[in-house]
């Protein structure tokens, strides 16, 4: 059992450097042999122990030199500057997997594969995610400029809809798949152009997805 009970319920947009669909979702190697990903989460309702997390946002910039499971990655955690000291501590504990059953959530998995975690940034996170419409944007001044859009049919230009529904996932029960563009700046810097994007509702706790 995790040390402190917690839960978050909200929406996520993630953009990585893989091709549409992302082989990592199917236990295959990443498209280019490495992983760069920027993730934003808008928490509607949440708590960590007695600390409310309602209405807060978090983001992360990740980079791994190979497949995630080979480790040696680096990351920059970003926390909503509106958060109180208690909320900041709670969010950082959740994001780093400290209060999570090992392997039960993406926080625990992705952070366990890092060899360098930069000092957290507390900043304005302008984030909106519409899962159904497969659209999102996120801006963190000095660190992230990001947008997500639907995949378009190359012949007709119509919006293409496809979903990923893992049987035993550690992040989401179902995700709408689209594409994204991201410019990441600061200590972990790179550009992502028209690559894999996922839009999903998140409902997570220390033992994984809450169904």
Poorly predicted runs of 5 or more residues: none
- How many beta-strand elements? 16
The fraction of residues in strands falls at: over 45%
H and E order: EEEEEHHEEEEEEEEEEE
Q: How many whole angstroms does the radius of gyration measure?
A: 16 Å
Silhouette: globular
- Give the helix tally: 2
Number of domains: 1
Can you characterise this structure?
The chain is mainly beta and 211 residues long. The protein has one domain (6-206). It is 9% helix and 48% strand. Strands 1, 2, 3, 4, 5, 6, 7, 8, 9, 10, 13, 14, 15 and 16 form a 14-stranded mixed sheet that branches. Strands 11-12 form a two-stranded antiparallel ribbon. Strand 14 (175-184) and strand 15 (190-205) form a beta hairpin. The mean pLDDT is 96.
List the helices and strands and how they pair.
Blueprint: E1 6-16, E2 35-48, E3 51-52, E4 57-64, E5 73-80, H1 85-95, H2 106-112, E6 114-117, E7 121-123, E8 126-130, E9 135-140, E10 144-149, E11 151-152, E12 159-160, E13 163-164, E14 175-184, E15 190-205, E16 208-209
Parallel strand pairs: 5-6, 5-7
Antiparallel strand pairs: 1-2, 1-15, 2-3, 2-4, 4-5, 8-9, 9-10, 10-14, 11-12, 13-14, 14-15, 15-16
Could you provide a short overview of the structure?
This protein is mostly beta strands and 211 residues long.
Overview features:
single chain, 211 residues, mainly beta, 14-stranded mixed sheet, two-stranded antiparallel sheet, 9% helix, 48% strand, globular
